[in-house]
Design goal:
This protein is an alpha+beta fold. The protein has a single domain (6-141), classed as Thiol Ester Dehydrase, Chain A (Roll), CATH 3.10.129. Helix content is 17%, strand content 39%. The chain has two helices and six strands. The protein has helices spanning 23-27, 58-77, and strands spanning 30-34, 38-44, 82-93, 101-111, 115-123, 129-141. The protein has a six-stranded antiparallel sheet with strand order 1-2-4-5-6-3, covered by helices on one side. The longest helix is centred in the middle third of the chain and has 20 residues, at 58-77. The protein is globular and about 45 Å long. 28% of the residues are buried.
Length: 145
């Protein structure tokens, strides 16, 4: 059974735009786990996530990885009045995904007061490792509302 979406948690900021009207909503992530050092999501490959040759577009991997890393970081730093946003995103594509459910596990590699770095593995339904994505999130003071 999956946990509620992370935005339902008191440890994260209130939404300004409903998820279903955002890019995150387009990705359709189902959150399975969110801790201070890890995150686990999965999502279904859809035709509008593919390039013309029928494989999932590389930008989807990067977008999912940055979304997961950003939310996981904010989950840890929001209580301290901080916010996180993408600083760098580096992907290695090992094998294409054409259909089915993609499983993504993120692990915190390390952090300091200003940056958090996450390593993420993307696997297909057969548990083949398909991509490795490293994302660094910049941590800065949250804007005053």
């Amino acid at each position: 059974m999956s946990q509620p979406a992370p935005w339902d948690r008191a440890a994260l900021p209130s939404l300004v735009i409903p998820i279903d009207r955002t890019f995150e909503g387009f990705l359709g992530l189902e959150w399975l786990e969110l801790t201070l050092a890890s995150a686990h999501v999965h999502f279904e490959v859809r035709e509008n996530m593919k390039q013309a040759l029928g494989i999932m577009h590389g930008g989807i991997y990067c977008a999912v990885a940055e979304t997961v890393a950003s939310i996981a970081t904010v989950h840890a730093v929001w209580k301290d009045g901080m916010i996180g946003s993408g600083l760098s995103n580096y992907a290695n594509f090992l094998r294409p995904i054409t259909e089915g459910t993609v499983d993504v596990k993120a692990a915190l590699r390390g952090h300091d007061d200003h940056e958090w770095t996450w390593g993420q593995e993307f696997r297909d339904e057969r548990e083949n490792l398909c991509a490795l994505v490293d994302v660094t999130i910049a941590v800065r003071p949250a804007p005053q509302q």
